Structure prediction request, 512 residues.
Amino acid sequence: MFRSHNVATRIFDRQISSPAPGSAVHYARRFYENLVPNYTMYEVECPDHLFRKFTEDGQYLVCFSRNHQKLIVYRPTWLSYSCKGDCTSTDLPPKARRFESFFTQLYSVSLPCTNELICKDFFLYMESNRYGLFATSTGQIHDATPVGGAVLGVPSIEKITFHLLRLEDGVVLDQRSFHHDFINLAHNAGAFLYDDLLAIVSLRYQTLHILQIRDSGNLVDVRAIGTYCREDDELFLNSHVQNIHETTVACFHSGLKQRLLSFIFRGMWNEETDPTLRVQGLKKKFYFHFQDYVDLIIWKVQFLDRHHLLIKFGSVEGVISRNTDLHPAFFAVYNMETTEIVAFYQNSADELYLLFEQFYDHFHATSRNSYTMNFVSSHSNNMHAREQLRCVKNKASSSLQFVKKMLASLPFNCQSQSPSPYFDQSLFRFDEKLISATDRHRQSTDHPIKFILRRQPYTLKFKIKPGPEAGSIDSRTKKISSFLFHPFLPLALSIQQTLYLQPAVVNIHFRK
Prediction:
């Protein structure tokens, strides 16, 4: 373990000693205790863009125009000036306060077709090929008529288009459109990327579209899970439909729902061996709640690996509600290859919570090509995060509500966490109510956010202050902040937004 906080000494120690097997990356990341953003450029002159995020390889900063028409991609170029001695804001040339001193624009491309706008909260990155997946859509229709098997009560969007781009030059390689459908694009909730597999959730038609992103840049259909589970299910049913009474056909559930009901039934059947108790148990637990199970619809999905999906089910009301905690929810693990449900839990199940607590990182399924994302701190791999979870659990009013609150985050939004080493809880301590690795807007504060060293001497290493340097004049105005940390450089952007459409205050935090 490093004892000195001098960079030169640490480099010398690295030359004469080697880390324990399997700890080389963690050993190297401790250098970030010295390499921190120690200077802030406040209210930087920059284009009035919507800043989305850095790509996981740190090569690109993805932005959108305010009118939601254009994608603008920058490359971090670090600083383009120098000065003698200690620099102060008065010593720096005027160009140093400009956004262009830190980033070079690579291109600006128009994505939307007629009447479509870019979804500012949606972006998925494929690191192996440096492809970016973006989405555009038309406006929502809340009282749309449910036709063609659509679910009653789910809004409709006339057109949703996914665009696959090569980030190097902004060339659109492929597109996939969904018509009169509803896909939750906010914070990547309706799509999940794992390696080269992409899952898109059609809430309106209750279908999981599995696509593959080929190295050539093509979006290829793999399977659609919902009404049918196997490729030949439709052919099989159509070939036998003439032998089935029409009223029987009308009672058919979708292939996925049928498998779910069968799994629940078999689970309750196997709970009892006595025939009388078995029948009584089925009446109370299955048949009494049968319609509730039938009415369940898919809310969200994520990959656990290349063959298994974690699917969240709930009521129709829960889909359009902002607070899904008020609605009952269930989780199912589905094997795409065997088309079987292999596990089913309610959102208050202690068994699922124990899996969540002990194997948290397995729920954050990351690409096999992703290097940095494998070191995001969690209560499964970090004792400090585990202690924080234990404190929250001890303060909870009831065990049931705590379990529901924790499991409400499942399935996780894809690529929703920053891999920056400054969020490594084995290195730094910070107030997670104000800032964290999770990609979310947070209520802003005029006080700086402190990053304190975890090891002795527990000193303050750096501060991140969103908004103007002198603070806001009107403290009553509600402000929100977002933070974009580079995945490995001591570079971060803080963006403070007040009123809608008012230009944001952008600060750049870097190592001087």
